[in-house]
Records
---
Amino acid sequence: MAKINRFQTILMAGVACAGLSACGADDIASPGEGTIVLPTPTPSPTPSPTPTPTPGNVTAAASCPTISGADQLTDLGTISDGSNTWRNCGFPARFNSSTAIAKTAGVIYSLPGRVDVGTDQGAASTGTNVTLTIDPGVVVFAGTGSAFLAVNRGNKINAVGTAAQPIVFTSRENVTGSATDQSSGQWGGVVLLGRAKITDCDQAPNAAPGTTACQRDTEGTTGAIYGGADDADSSGRMSYVQIRYSGFVLANGKELQGLTPSGVGTGTVLDHIQIHNSSDDGIEIFGGSAHLKHLVLTGNEDDNLDSDVGFRGTAQFIISVQRANNNIGDTFTETDSNGSTTGTSFSEDALPRQYLKVANFTHIQRSNTGDDGATMMLRGGADLAMVNGIIVSPDQSCLRINSAATVRDADTTLQDAGKPRYLSVVMQCSATPFKGTGGVDNATVQSIFSTDPNSSFAYTPSLTSLFINGPAETARTAIDPKTIDSNFTTTNYIGAVKDSNDSWYAGWTCNSVTASFGSSSKNCTAIPTA
């Protein structure tokens, strides 16, 4: 690997193997590396200033607050960025009863290592055992590089911020002021473990996929189990949340993402979430059936949205931007159902078959040498529908499709929706826009993409502020995403941001050299003090 910061993290992995990794189920690619070429039609983002402590002169509280339940916070002294000082209140290693974490003046919270919400209730369980509530404006940082938060099956997180007071999960380096716009991999991230259907059962490789017998242990750990048969399962809610500088490396190809929803059902609410500078994927979804909305994915080093293990859900309103001033990044989407010989539940045709549906997205590709060799990767018989999208990738192929099973006609007996669909999707690509591999040729990929007359790979962007639609985007014909899936919101435009009056991303996000979201958003390198 070419990235020095990731070498340092790998060296730490030998003492951190109790952490958890979440690369793909079978042969998910390691983070891509390459030379960044900025899209010339798109204005470069305004650089962030050199990291400095946020003014505010926060004074540490005299003690940690008392929370409900038997598991109390630990007073770990104070922590400072040189200008602001907080009381460092450590979470217990496990929350065994429901409790709430309040925003308290002069207090910041930390993860001493792996922190569990409840204990695993099993695939066949019902109801909720423990709920961890986190109030708007709370900041939680990783006390060690291998720390992460795991919400176990049958338990919930209720982390609901506001546009003015997002909840921030971040690294110790971010708190002390040493994180920069190129920092990453400084802690583990947030892992949600649910009871919805999955494939690729490693706990019983020959179990029937989509049943309570089909379960997986998150790679790199013991006892982070997910999977079941309840597609309506709820792991709680995360809204108006930032996850910064995550993606701890355990070994080559084994890393945590920013957010890892695993076997998460439709009862889980995930919206207004920013993943910034993960050393692996921004979000990797392992099975389940969740519906995600309003995602901001910035500076992540592998795929921004990766899905596998039978995921059947949706994602809408996505701003996706690869990191500026670096040679990092693989794809916007990597969508997998690739099989293996490990067990019958790993078959390319194991059900539930993955069916990802994505609407209203804008992706800015800056790397042209990622492992997948294209901005979007689809393989292994997975089904896909992409609607009202914008891809800016002038120096890389836009679309790669692998495996003949991915492009075959619909077959209800195999739960196969047929060839992938690209509806009102426009792309600016390299001289080779399409790649076919694994029994698929380039011409077939181009033919599939061009089936919809409203889609085009001869698009010239007029985006402003990097991701806001201009006249060229406004002139494009959009379709109603609800005609594809009822969980989508009706829109009449392509892309993630309709125009300059559309500001769903403002305030709760953080700014960096990679992308600026306006003056109401603060710098990613600083901790909010208001």
---
Amino acid sequence: MNTTEFLTIATAIVPDRPAMVFEDRRISYAELGVRVNRLSNALADLGVGAGDRIAMLQVNCHQYVETYFAAARLDAVYVPLNFRTRADELTHMLNDAAPKVIFVGERYVDLVKECAENVASLEHFVTLEAAVEGWHSYESLIESGDDSERVPNDDDNDLTMILFTSGTTTFPKGVMLSHDSFSSYILATVTPADPDEETSNILTVPLYHIAGVQSVMAAIFAGRTLLIQRQFEAKQWMEIVEKERANRAMMVPTMLKMLMDHPDFHKHDLSSLEVITYGAAPMPLPVIRQAIQEFPGMSFINAFGQTETAATITMLPPEDHVLEGNEDEVERKLKHLSSIGKPLEDVDVRIFDEDGHPVALGETGEIAARGARLMKGYWNQEDATAETIRDGWLFTGDLGYQDEDGYIYLAGRARDFIKRGGEMVSPEEVEQVLQSHDAVEEAAIIGVPDLDWGERVRAIVVLKDGEQASEEDISEYCRQRLASFKKPESVVFCEELPRNPMGKVLKRLLKEEYSHPVVVE
């Protein structure tokens, strides 16, 4: 199914229901349909057509949703960009995706102007807020377009979105997702809009992230009201839930812990919440156990997936979060609570050894998935695609094992990715920055387990003979050259890095020696 049908169906069934609530603005499904039509026609007047890329750089807002569906009606390809990116990363992504149009939030205008000098593809710039000389105004485009509805020609397997994700190389890779990448999951797991059932979903995960995108797709198809928060802030989140009587939420573990740790947590009425889905990073067992106590009767869902899988591939359902029964049953549920659940029915999930053979129960290997919703590949990176998708199986890079009950447990990362608060950090990228420091001989990056963030970034640094540098020097050097979530939060100095005979750094040994918790003052 073409994803534009999600909006068409919901608009026909619940036209007067609020589709989005963003700060002081409420937009009904009927109004959303009109705005999408006008924007798509305005973009067509600018010369945007099938296959053209349309980029977005902004924190969460209602324009994200409108722009995606407008792009899809034109058979164009939507490219949401990480708003935490630095200039060199943004320049790389823009040159890689080569968008014709970019929509820009006010705080990112200067950054885009800086990068645009080195990006040949950009023909049109659209400001979402304050006027910018020489740029189009978002609302002016809406006003200039006519109301006629464009019917897209794309079929299920055609490309509709490119999401950039951190990889093992220096810069992010563009993950190509088709209409079927989204619709196969939505049609299998979400009930269509119902005029008699009103549900609201607070959306606070970033809309450049697969979790945010899937939340939008599910909400629109189900005719839910999206309560959009620009960026997560615990106090405001609770105020929105209380005021709007939100029923559903998607959170990363860090957000859930920040919420429960907030001094005003028990001062707000959050009783309207019925479902909390969490994922994007490992959930510490103490945090989910606390959440189960703090939200009695809540349906918790642990959804595991990644950008390359386009959505959830394994799930720990609500019943596995109910810690009731006899002693043996509770003990078994506590064990399952540390898992990522079982594979969904419409996805094949297996665990393979290094030779590509399925492992036995209890043995650790790389988790791989097969099914309609997986990515088409990496944009402009055939070698990386061939390395990740082999014989129809997408290898996730996550190591894990499966128990006798069918539950899958994570056991590390094949490529040493670090997941900090739901964000993916490539050690190789940070290491390259570190090794460009004049005083650094060599460096390695590891992830340190952390209750608040899942993992924190730690640098293990060897200084050149006769050179000196402090932890603050190293951290500041990285802060100026990397997105904030990628910079090391602690630095350990040592005489040399352990290596194997082939010269590869033995990160296993580094983790054994240097994985003590980060002390944040």
